[in-house]
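Retro notes, structure queue

What went well: the backlog is down to a handful. What didn't: a couple of records were mislabeled last round, so from now on we paste the full input next to the output in the thread. Example, using Family 10 glycosylhydrolase from Pseudonocardia zijingensis:
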Amino acid sequence: MNLRTPDWHRTATRWTQLTLTESDPGRFDPAFWVDIMRRTRSNATCISAGGYMAFYPTRIPFHYRSRHLGDGDPFGELVEGARSLGMHVMARVDPHAVHADALAAHPEWVDRTPDGEPREHWAFPGTYVTCPFGPYNREFVTEVARELVREYDIDAVFANRWQGHGVSRSEHARRAFFDATGHELPVEPYDPDDPAWKAYVPWRRQQLSELVALWDTAVKDIRPHARFIPNLGSLAVHELDRDLIERHYPFFVLDRQSRSGIEAPWAAGRNAKRSRGAFRDRPVGLISSVGPEHHQHRWKDSVASPAEIRMWIVDGFAHGGFPWFTKFNGMVPDDRWVEPVADAFGLHATVEPVLSRMRVTADVAVYDAAGPAGDPHEDGFHQALVEARIPFEFVSATRFTAEELGRFRVLVLPNAERMSDEACAVVREFVRAGGGVVAGHRTSLSTADGGTRSDFGLADVLGVHLEEDVRGPVKNNYIALTGEHPVSAGFGGAGRIIGGTHLLRVAAAPDADVPFRFVPDYPDLPMEELYARRAPEHPAVVTRQRPGEGRTVHVAFDIGSLFWETLQPDHGRLMADAVTWALAEPPRVDVRGPGLHDVAVHEGEGELAVCLVNLTNPMAMRGPVRELIPVGPLAVSVALPEGATGAVARLLVGGADAEVAVADGRVTVAVDSVELLEVLHLAWVTGR
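Corresponding output:
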């Protein structure tokens, strides 16, 4: 296999990354790391080279060398070792800081505080944070990249922390922004309604996108097959210019290294899905750390729970992201990470030959509003769909077209407040063509630029009209089941369930149904006053199905964010039942049995694979994963395509053929047990 071709990245699907420290040269063992690459079955590696600190004998002025480097070249040794295994090689540079001598010689390289002083590094005093928009990145880092591809047999240069940290206030950034927009730099924190912020976001996008193009062109001028691959880090793919990405980004690398705080373990798979929602044809690598993360706490030289390491890596690649692990420090005081990484990478190597020829598919799409921060409404819907084993993808607000939406049968809008008239028109046509919609809370009540609408932009689609905007927080709210409807059929003998804390008052269209209505407010104290005074009144859930069109559901309270906060099972059931009803026909893939499973579906020509990631764990939602608990049996049912009379099945992780049962146009396979991952591979049988 020729490793040095323009499409080399297509066979770079398991990555080992080693980030060296200043004390490593002369102390760490490069042979140990080459053996790690072999044990993990890695076919690509990313190795520390330069930027903030050089681990090779650079000749560029003010390119700080490790003071332990001497006459050595640890970067070069690791490159040779990886190439001896037939691996692809990428050089890592980190341009986010410089030492004091560089500041003295080039003050224009450095970011500034609001009062104009050089911005000292927040974690390592005596070093200084660079400006991403000025000559440091555009000139110095470009020369470092050229030197690396000229002197070493590498395929790419990878930049970490290259996009700045907050609003850069260097003189170069201030002048460039003012000349382009007429605004002074915005004041943090982010305010979407501030004109300066409205101008800064696209300006920053253009500046960073042009920087990527500059670096990529620079390395290709020297080594034509090579690429410059910036780590997205805190960026999201929607924050870069689409045209430049098409030309200069052969794949993405997302730096979301592990579960943090109370983040759910399915967040790894979400990272892959979100990237694919914005750029469906671009592969995405998901960086996993072997150390624990917890918001602002960082223990980069430690080891996370082995079970959590495995789960994070596996959930990511089940949803289409290729695995990439990173280790900080070439010295290894604690090697408990090696086995779980090797195990997870080994699982990927086992299933990759089948999954690599397929694409991830789903009937359900969740709208990704492409905002700068997390969304608890989306988190709640995500959790509900995972619990219900409903496979889904994302569709990005930046690529919200009729063609893109047409890939799906149901669109979920968790709380898409800001929707342009054009986006509403896309949804309208989707429903007219038979697509279903489940919309939460304030969806479409604002325009794309934050302007307030007097009614829902999707009022005619959803069959609801706004009478009163959000009221709350409300205590002790309930919604009553009012009339028979599939969306309210799964609550046993309950006459009412928990409602919301932030409520909308809406009116339902004459042709809509109202399976749930709000119970009018009543006190939660004194206890003797805790009873309803009036019958249920205003619509809480509105459903509609017009002849020849798709089904729609609107929930007039904060169901997504409230479920994420409280995990009340009735809210999860309501969201899942709404999506199931909106599908209008049985789901293509149905998984029954015990446990919490994140389900992904991959489809190819005449074949389909169902990935079952077992997230079952007593601490799956509110703490770290300590152990993997096998769960089963599971029954996986898949609808056969037209013309198919049966299927043959194989369990890829178990390494065994599976018995199939065919009835009523569906094939069912029993999976006895899943520890972490099982992939059910089905191939269709046509004719007799």
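Agreed that this is the format going forward. Reviewer comment attached to the example: The first strand starts at residue 15 and ends at 19.
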